[in-house]
Amino acid sequence: MPVSAKDVAAACSISLTTVNEILGGRGERYRATTRELVRATAERLGYRRHGMAMAVRTGRFRAVALVNASDETDPQLRPDLVWGIADRLAQAGHLLQFARLPDAALAEADAPRLLDEWCSDGLLINAHHPIAERFVERIRGHRIPAIWLNSDDAQDAVRPDDAGAPEIAVAHLQARGHTRIAWLDPVRGSRGPAGHHSHEQRRAGYRQAMRQRRLTPCLIEEAGAVPEAGHPALARRLDAHPLRPTACITPDRNLAASILHVCHPAPEIVVLDDAPVTVLGRRLTTCLVPQRRMGTTAVELLLARIAGAPPGPAAIIPFTLHPESA
Question: Domains in the chain and their CATH numbers?
Fold first, then answer.
């Protein structure tokens, strides 16, 4: 038979209420010696809390579900994002659950149970790819506390400052003496299969950063998405451009590699990426997407919503610059 809280109370010769409060994380009003006795006895007896019973008693599962809304070929679920979420939830004494939200092609029956069954206190939704509207309506219709990651929603969302990242890159390159700075993106388009809203925001941020400095924007791109096999052609366009850029910014590490292979002399490159970029043994300057901070911020916003806070404005997290090293 599993060890119960009653067994712990009997072994400690104290009340069941005291044991439940201490083991439930609500025992601050008891002496430290009493709390230590209860916890040590529970560990010695092999006691494990019954999550469902606690949920019935407290109205909380102390669990949050991370829902990934990306397709299988491009999951967009970065390790630093997950670690940021998991670490902050652990600090708050919450468990992390995981579910995959089906795309528009999947049937209604494929929806995860957590949309219809009360089994977590709230949702963190990684919305890098479009979500079928019927699932969005279900989440909001059930009034499930939710924070949307990588979404351009105005409320209850956390996203990187995609418009501000090119400003950081342009300022860095100008400080290093560059005035002819190009923008190369193999994906152009703010919606649909061609890309995520971040592409258009970054492109607009680059144009604004250049114009604020009275520099001439130089955009080298194609409509839609350019496959990796087409990256050398984009690099050759950079090499042959009449402006002769001495530096460039790109959100694609594979395109950065093509630029270094094709262009002679190679321009200085800043890459917008989730992790530091190394090409041919050369660590390139990288504007890093703040994945871990996005994760911790999303958890803090969600815990506030679970506690009853009203919807709040989206949190926009700045990129960080990691300069080039040999």
Answer: 5-49 (no CATH), 63-160+292-317 (3.40.50.2300), 164-288 (3.40.50.2300)
